[in-house]
Design brief:
By secondary structure, the protein is an alpha/beta fold. It folds into two domains: 201 residues, NAD(P)-binding Rossmann-like Domain (Rossmann fold); 90 residues, UDP-galactose 4-epimerase, domain 1, CATH 3.90.25.10. Helix content is 37%, strand content 19%. It has ten helices and 13 strands. The chain has a seven-stranded parallel sheet, sandwiched between helices. The chain is globular, with a radius of gyration of 19 Å.
Length: 324
């Protein structure tokens, strides 16, 4: 595993904290940098006595923080970002600042520091926008329909340029809908919190026929580590998703069943074409054939991933423990 010392930006967030768990378990020395805008130190509480973990509460929008974080680091897992796709439509500057500016500052710090050899970037399936054909391959057109997706495209472009100019080996992991414990955004979390407030009715954004694949966070982390172990070229992109998909109505039905509810009225709120909000994608599913070529495939299908995630999220909300 090369030099087992890494910086994880956004390491107190959802995916970042799970990656921190795995690297520490594998004997890595990990520095987490997080501004806690969407992450939480509670996600790292189990490691508070682990001497191999250091936590820096800081913001990559500050170039000094970015430079300080790279001291004696060979590998960077860049997971810091604002993950709220809907927010990007109404507050696009947040995604410019938190995603693009933070990534640029990190890359500049990497260039100046000179000691970082490997960069693993958490990108998104949103870079593809509304695809012409499903499942989407890495060679498909990049055509984002949300500011969030556009911010990930911009970050990838900067990473490609810095990698080719300065000898950095890098990879963009275009994650699908990653779900599991510690999740605090997205459709599953949204449905559960709505049903907490009103057990008889569930508001669904869109017409319910929107199609997605869902990937359990354990599978996402396994893919991340697998790709890191296969870095060769200056830049590569990998789709990280599942091999099947569900509709939003399917997800609602699964969550209602997990919660032990019945007679739930679904109330739909959709825009033209049945999407949930401006910038939403009607149908997206990824081809993971490239990931399979490096020896990875998901252990859980989309339905199982949703069930596991819903139960985990409910367990993290004590009011629902008995019901699940």
């Amino acid at each position: 595993m090369r030099n087992k010392s890494a910086l994880i930006t956004g390491g107190a967030g959802f995916i970042g904290s799970h990656l921190t768990d795995t690297l520490l378990k594998d004997g890595w020395h990990v520095l987490v940098v997080d501004n806690l805008s969407t992450g939480s130190l509670k996600n790292l509480e189990r490691h508070r006595d682990n001497p191999n973990l250091k936590i820096m509460v800081g913001d990559l929008k500050d170039s000094k923080i970015a430079m300080e974080a790279l001291t004696n680091v060979e590998t960077v897992f860049h997971f810091a970002a604002n993950p709220e796709v809907r927010l990007s439509t109404t507050h696009p500057k947040i995604h410019f600042d938190e995603n693009i500016m933070a990534t640029f500052n990190l890359l500049e710090a990497i260039r100046q520091a000179g000691n970082v050899k490997y960069l693993i970037f958490a990108s998104s399936s949103s870079v593809y926008g509304e695809p012409e054909a499903i499942p989407v391959k890495e060679s498909s057109s990049i055509n984002p329909v949300s500011i969030y997706g556009a911010s990930k495209v911009a970050c990838e472009a900067f990473i490609v340029s810095y990698s080719r100019l300065y000898g950095l080996k890098s990879v963009a992991l275009r994650y699908a809908n990653v779900i599991g414990s510690r999740l605090n955004h997205g459709v599953i979390y949204d449905f559960i919190t709505k049903l907490m407030r009103n057990e008889g009715k569930l508001q669904i954004l869109g017409d319910g026929s929107q199609m997605r694949s869902f990937l359990h966070v354990d599978d996402a982390i396994e893919a991340t580590v697998k790709v890191y172990g296969n870095l060769n070229d200056s830049f590569e992109a990998y789709n990280v998703g599942n091999e099947d998909w569900l509709t939003v109505n399917d997800v609602a039905n699964i969550i209602v069943e997990v919660l032990g509810l019945s007679n739930i009225k679904y109330v739909f709120e959709s825009y033209l074409g049945g999407i949930g909000w401006l910038g939403d994608v009607k149908k997206i599913a990824l081809s993971v054939s490239k990931m399979r070529s490096v020896g990875w495939r998901p252990r859980y299908d989309s339905k199982t991933a949703v069930e596991l995630a819903a139960r985990a999220i409910c367990q993290e909300n004590l009011a629902w423990v008995k019901r699940t």
